[in-house]
Amino acid sequence: MTHTAHFKVWRGDAEGGGLADYDIEVNEGEVVLDIIHRLQATQAPDLAVRWNCKAGKCGSCSAEINGRPRLLCMTRMSVFDPAETVTVTPMRAFPVMRDLVTDVSFNYTKAREVPAFVPPPELEPGEYRMMQEDVGRSQEFRKCIECFLCQDTCHVVRDHEENKPAFAGPRFLMRVAELDMHPLDAAAESGLDRKRTAQEEHGLGYCNITKCCTEVCPENIKITDNALIPLKERAADRKYDPLVWLGNKIRRR
Ligand code: SF4
Ligand code: F3S
Ligand code: FES
């Protein structure tokens, strides 16, 4: 079954822009990215869009469809009423480069700010042994495709550019949580307290667990329940741990 859909697509660049109207053919089984490609082929050859895999795995085609952060390649046209106007805009939390392409370098900056896994000094990589339970806990977080839809939707930065320097965002707080849960991470032995840095350097306290990040994650990772809330609990335990309190007192002298 084929029908003609009405699309509004944001066209412009860093200087500004607006929504352009298109009537375009839609065929059964197509996704929004197919329609964007058809627009490029027929009506808008210079329409900029970033994509790679068309399989929900590269995380490149993130945008907003009818105001909701989504992957263009994983949003089926069948979820819309044929008479409905489909509006496609670039991710709002990041600066526009052109049309649907945004500059996501904020996320790379935040990624670099999280210190990597610290290998246990007494073990060679082939000697690592972990309980399946421990592997399972953080495996969920490794499904992340770095689409940055969670970063785009989180209200802490979505409309508050001024919070960006102090807030890593859900994707990278989840990374801190993953490393903090890792039974072989030897960060603490080398003087790196991931719970403290989560609070003081990555802005964990800004997150008020609204769960919007979890709602938009295409990998269905329970970012809030399984990463952010446990990290908050662990950071709070650390703060009120009498030994930590005593240690801080002594260090301050
Ligand atoms: Fe995308 Fe989910 Fe990873 Fe966030 S956690 S970047 S929404 S895959
Ligand atoms: Fe933002 Fe997710 Fe927390 S949307 S406020 S990081 S629960
Ligand atoms: Fe790779 Fe959409 S094109 S996730």
TrEMBL record:
<dbReference type="InterPro" id="IPR025192">
    <property type="entry name" value="Succ_DH/fum_Rdtase_N"/>
</dbReference>
<dbReference type="InterPro" id="IPR012675">
    <property type="entry name" value="Beta-grasp_dom_sf"/>
</dbReference>
<dbReference type="InterPro" id="IPR036010">
    <property type="entry name" value="2Fe-2S_ferredoxin-like_sf"/>
</dbReference>
<dbReference type="InterPro" id="IPR006058">
    <property type="entry name" value="2Fe2S_fd_BS"/>
</dbReference>
<dbReference type="InterPro" id="IPR009051">
    <property type="entry name" value="Helical_ferredxn"/>
</dbReference>
<comment type="pathway">
    <text>Carbohydrate metabolism; tricarboxylic acid cycle.</text>
</comment>
<dbReference type="InterPro" id="IPR001041">
    <property type="entry name" value="2Fe-2S_ferredoxin-type"/>
</dbReference>
<keyword id="KW-0001">2Fe-2S</keyword>
<keyword id="KW-0560">Oxidoreductase</keyword>
<dbReference type="Pfam" id="PF13085">
    <property type="entry name" value="Fer2_3"/>
</dbReference>
<dbReference type="InterPro" id="IPR050573">
    <property type="entry name" value="SDH/FRD_Iron-Sulfur"/>
</dbReference>
<keyword id="KW-0004">4Fe-4S</keyword>
<dbReference type="Pfam" id="PF13183">
    <property type="entry name" value="Fer4_8"/>
</dbReference>
<keyword id="KW-0411">Iron-sulfur</keyword>
<keyword id="KW-0408">Iron</keyword>
<comment type="similarity">
    <text>Belongs to the succinate dehydrogenase/fumarate reductase iron-sulfur protein family.</text>
</comment>
<dbReference type="InterPro" id="IPR017896">
    <property type="entry name" value="4Fe4S_Fe-S-bd"/>
</dbReference>
<keyword id="KW-0479">Metal-binding</keyword>
<protein>
    <submittedName>
        <fullName>Succinate dehydrogenase/fumarate reductase iron-sulfur subunit</fullName>
    </submittedName>
</protein>
<dbReference type="InterPro" id="IPR004489">
    <property type="entry name" value="Succ_DH/fum_Rdtase_Fe-S"/>
</dbReference>
<feature type="domain" description="2Fe-2S ferredoxin-type">
    <location>
        <begin position="5"/>
        <end position="92"/>
    </location>
</feature>
